[in-house]
TrEMBL record:
Active-site residues from the entry: 183, 190
Positions bound to substrate: 102, 128-130, 186-187, 191, 261, 288, 447, 453
Protein family membership: Belongs to the 6-phosphogluconate dehydrogenase family.
Chain residues that bind NADP(+): 9-14, 32-34, 74-76, 102
6-phosphogluconate dehydrogenase C-terminal domain boundaries: 179-469
Catalytic activity: 6-phospho-D-gluconate + NADP(+) = D-ribulose 5-phosphate + CO2 + NADPH
Pathway assigned to this chain's UniProt record: Carbohydrate degradation; pentose phosphate pathway; D-ribulose 5-phosphate from D-glucose 6-phosphate (oxidative stage): step 3/3
Enzyme class: oxidoreductase
The protein's name in its UniProt record: 6-phosphogluconate dehydrogenase, decarboxylating
GO molecular function, one term: phosphogluconate dehydrogenase (decarboxylating) activity
PROSITE patterns on file: 6PGD
Amino acid sequence: TSADIGVTGLAVMGRNLARNFARSGYTVAVHNRTPAKTRALIEEFGDEGAFLPAESPADFVASLERPRRLVVMVKAGEPTDAVIAEFAPLLEEGDVIIDGGNAHFADTRRRERELRDRGIHFVGAGISGGEEGALHGPSIMPGGSAESYASLGPMLESVAAKADDGAPCTTHVGTDGAGHFVKMVHNGIEYADMQLIGEAYHLLRDVAGYSPAQIAEVFRTWNSGRLDSYLMEVSAEVLSHTDAETGAPFVDVVADRAEQKGTGRWTVQTALELGVPVSGIAEAVFARSLSGHADLRAAAAGLPGPRAEAMASDAAGHFADQVEQALYASKIVAYSQGWNMIQAGAQEYGWDIDLGAVAAIWRGGCIIRAVFLDHIRSAYASDPDLATLIADERFSAEIGRAQGDWRAVVATATRHGIPTPGFSAALAYYDALRAGRLPAALTQAQRDFFGAHTYRRTDRDGVFHTLWGGDRSEQYTE
Ligand code: NBP
């Protein structure tokens, strides 16, 4: 017998993905650099389906049906290159290597080009959902040739999560690095969403005096409405958890220093290069890094400013309602920035990405899965050329209704000295986009003054420079 697919790299992700394929009825060849992991998989889970364990790369490759489909689930970066270098010489034209790790899309573009020259299809597939997702159904974002998706797609569709309407949470995103690019933006949006939820928690706690358990209840209510999402559910779970040792709310015993593995940073770095204003994601990345600067925080700890002072009470839940509005409106902005980034990446790298389909495959399996994503899907379904999600009919109406409360919440936060970089940046972005005139006119004039960088006029075509150091006459330069 030969295997339908192979998985090499059997740490948590690879092992669970291999089990997922086997449980879906496929025969799965399994391999790991250290064979003990392969043996452990067979010992513990061998009865879940048809596995073909192999201890050498040659045996592993020989056990795969042609064209071979080989999933690499090793640590991103050099290990991925090492594994490709080891396996590619054993493969033949038409075979497919799938990299399911968290690769940077630029690495995926390079690997795809190198392997394409050797007749091998390289599919950089973003996989979201953590180890549970890998086992029970992740959201899968494969890039690569259309031909490779034709052979691989049905298998990915059968192991991927299913959205509420039954659609599999995977699609052919685009060529070469498109899959890893959208996975990167997914993670950036995840950072922004988590930051916004954190700000809502902070406001409810320090402005309105809610306890963590009460906030968990508020979040559960929100989670049954338009904010229904996995991250909201997780937040409520965490906030209602009590530390076993101290009996204190769990959130109060966790050190307030947020770490990061780097995909948020990649998103912001790439956005800077593409010139896309993803301020919500950037603020979230900076908020995490600020939290880790113990030295700066200690130096500033005694500086003047309002101390959090709880309001009498929010018995009627009025403030909580306002925060819900602010959170929802800010979320629309953060997601619309993320989608503009995908659009910009597609333009820059020549990917034909269906923006609605990206929303559709994030409805299940991944960390940002939410009811909300179905509205994004339908916004792009009704207008594929939508310039920004905030201009979609549904979202603009919702922001219109939310904006009074949104402004009130940002003002309250400012008055109480509660930092809300996510809410504030989202509101500033919204106001900047809808403003008729921006102070960028002054910026450009300043640039012309000190650097002769020229400017355009509102009233006629052409590029101009004013002789600031001379008689201040205006020159037409082109
Ligand atoms: P790790 O990222 O911890 O990688 C461990 C695996 O890489 C082991 O199988 C190890 O083999 C193998 N490996 C290394 Br390290 N260097 C190697 C080399 N030079 N040659 C061959 N194999 C090598 O595993 P993971 O947490 O399962 O994640 C796998 C991928 O999935 C990563 O890219 C990760 O970023 C991505 N991802 C993870 C999650 C998550 O929730 N953990 C979610 C989404 C995506 P060994 O056993 O012989 O040391």
